[in-house]
Amino acid sequence: MSFELSVGIRNQTQVVEFVLLGFSGILYGRTSLALAFLAIYLVTVLGNLMIFTMIQLKPSLHTPMYYFLSHLSCLDICFSSVTVPKMVVNVLRRQQTISYNQCMAQMFFLISFTGTECCLLAVMAYDRYAAICKPLHYTRLMNTKVCTILAFGTWIWGFLDSALHTALSTRLDFCGVNQIHHIFCDLPPLMKMACSDTHINELAVHIIGFFMGGGPLLFIIFSYVFILSSILKIQSTTGKRKAFSTCASHLTVVFIYYGNSLLNYQRPSAGYSLATGTLLSIMFCIITPMLNPLIYSLRNKEVKEALKKALENWRPSKHHRSRS
Predict the structure, then answer these.
(1) Can you give the pTM of this predicted structure?
(2) CATH number of the domain where residue 142 is located
(3) Is 263 exposed, middle or buried (0-12, 13-18, 19+ CB in 10 A)?
(4) Distances from the Cα of 146 to the Cα of 61, 115, 142, 221, 227, angstroms
(5) Is residue 8 in a domain?
(6) Which of 172, 235, 293, 301 has the most Cβ atoms closer than 10 angstroms to its Cβ?
(7) Which residues lie across from 97 on neighbouring strands?
(8) 93-125 tens-digit pLDDT
């Protein structure tokens, strides 16, 4: 009898949708904010899609470095698409809600793409290490088969990581509490509002987070220690400058991504207002994916030349203009 009563109470208080409070303090200018988010999203999608397409069509860019960059562009499109469209809709709505199933799905893809990008940045660092520190063995170390395994391995690892976190999150009880102090569904705010035991979830976050976030970061740091050591041994200034230029874009992306990631997930629980958390989340999920194609376009000579040629090919020829 007591078991049936507890089940009945649980069914009555089972949350079917959540209310996102991240934009609740904004009383005016919601339409302008939504349009700004939409514009940034379109720039993100078009910029990354342009780089992805250019790499596929340009034979001179069929190298391991640009192969991984094409995966990064695809990943940034997916990463931004998980959160921004729903955010645009919620900003325009009076009550910003998301269903339980949509929340779990959004969290699953957000965690998977976050983990995948961490691993992919580490793989790109290994590619730079092989190119600069092991140039005579580069074609063997980074052949087509190895690149394919490394690239798709990062996606699989990210999805496995997310599947574990999402499975543990579906076991949480919320006891009727459905207000999330965030702009999208993510693991930390969900655990914070849960009324059931979250020790296993927290343990999984710390252990897996160390391997998925800290592990790739340590690998990147050690890779660049060896890269810097090799570059300093180069005698010519031109050679040093060329070696540095091949790493500059990747290092910039790493600093921006991990900097925003640490501000979002490693900040103290106290001392941050909802507005501050919202701003940091916007930087991480909206601004960062938009910056990656701009960084590689502006700092990479080969990408700039390929873009310039592509634009020239799109322009109508003089013969066509004269006939018209």
Answers:
(1) 0.84
(2) 1.20.1070.10
(3) middle
(4) 17, 20, 6, 22, 21
(5) no
(6) 293
(7) 19
(8) 767 788 889 889 999 999 999 889 999 999 999
